[in-house]
Amino acid sequence: MHIMEGFLPPAHCIGWAAVSAPFVVHGAVKLRRIMREQPQMRLTLAAAGAFTFVLSALKMPSVTGSCSHPTGTGLGAVLFGPPVMSVLGAIVLLFQALLLAHGGLTTLGANIFSMAIVGPWVSYGLWRLCRSLGLSVAVGVFVGAALGDLATYVTTSVELAMAYPDASSGYVGAFLKFAGIFAITQVPLAIAEGFLTVIVMNALAEKSNVLEDLGLVKARS
Amino acid sequence: MRLVSRPVRYLLLLGVLALVVLPLMFVRGQFGGSDDAASKAIADQQPGFKPWFQPLWKPPSTEIESLLFAVQAAIGAGTIGYVLGRMHGAAKERETYKKKASPSDVDH
């Protein structure tokens, strides 16, 4: 999902940065509030940040014969809400842009929008939807994490199609072309991310009252 | 609270492994990065395309690049391991505290 350095026209770079910046600032405010008001959550916050750190470093083979990486933003989005993940995701993307030449500074806004904003919001929305439909925590986490991952790659395809419409088939044709590269590769990896997120969420929740303390499930009396 | 039972957890892990390993076994491909594939698609569409900005610093070789990716993953995995270890320890401590506390409560 990383759009490489210099691959978006300057106007698009500025536009996406302008769209993403308020989300990151809002997230930073929320993050500070959690650190201040729920200091016992710091460890869990660290785990949520670390999860996207690991997963976004792992490029895994897929059915299309190319490699791609999960995003790992679903876990934190469910636990702490999407704004917090805007900050944590932005940090990961900045790290990769500066030290790995993966993604870029000019494309940071667009990459933050897909991985640290759209992905977490889709994860959070679907998690809430699943829970309100009476589905189990595990199902909600799986659906949220898997489809949030996929949504990130669909967003990248939209961003690229907006910058590079196809000469004959226009924006739609360009979107389908980029989605063919990203989204199809991502389907099995998104499912794998959903499974992994359930495993890690279970490990976090099993030995603690994290889910109860964050108000995600009702405390058993 | 527990989200999934132990056997389901193993099935999920097995699922992750299968999703990653099966393509390697049955799909013939170059297994390059999809990010690079997208960059290439843009370059193909616009002959003579050149990115207008270059990364400030690039890992000098693919070896160094994979080293840095591994460092990133190791930092993340290490942190998660540390957090889970702390939680595990705390849970154990609570349990022994409870066991110790309950009989002495009866004595007094």
Task: Explain what you see.
By secondary structure, chain A is mostly helical. Chain A has helices at 10-37, 42-55, 74-80, 82-99, 108-132, 137-163, 170-206, 210-213, and strands spanning 60-61, 67-68. The longest helix of chain A is centred in the last third of the chain and has 37 residues, at 170-206. Chain A is globular. The mean pLDDT of chain A is 96. Chain B has a domain at 58-108. Chain B contains 3 helices and no strands. Chain B has helices at 6-26, 34-45, 62-107. The model of chain B has no long low-confidence stretch (mean pLDDT 91).
DSSP helical segment count of chain B: 3
Number of domains of chain A: 1
DSSP strand (E) fraction of chain A? under 5%
**If interface size is counted as residues with C-beta under 8 Å from the partner's C-beta, which chains form the largest one?**
A-B, 81 and 60 residues
Helix content of chain B: over 70%
Provide the low-confidence segments of chain B as ranges: none
What is the count of DSSP helices of chain A, taking H or I runs of 4+ residues?
Answer: 8
User: Quick one: overall form of chain B?
Assistant: elongated
Question: Mind sketching the topology for me?
Answer:
The complex is a heterodimer of chains A (221) and B (108).
Chain A: H1 10-37, H2 42-55, E1 60-61, E2 67-68, H3 74-80, H4 82-99, H5 108-132, H6 137-163, H7 170-206, H8 210-213
Antiparallel strand pairs in A: 1-2
Helix pairs in contact in A: 1-4, 1-5, 2-3, 3-4, 3-5, 4-5, 5-6, 6-7
Chain B: H1 6-26, H2 34-45, H3 62-107
Write a concise synopsis of the structure shown.
The complex is a heterodimer of chains A (221) and B (108). Chain A has helices at 10-37, 42-55, 74-80, 82-99, 108-132, 137-163, 170-206, 210-213, and strands at residues 60-61, 67-68.
Q: Which terms would index this structure?
A:
heterodimer; A: 221 residues; mainly alpha; Arp2/3 complex 21 kDa subunit ARPC3; two-stranded antiparallel ribbon; B: 108 residues; 3 helices
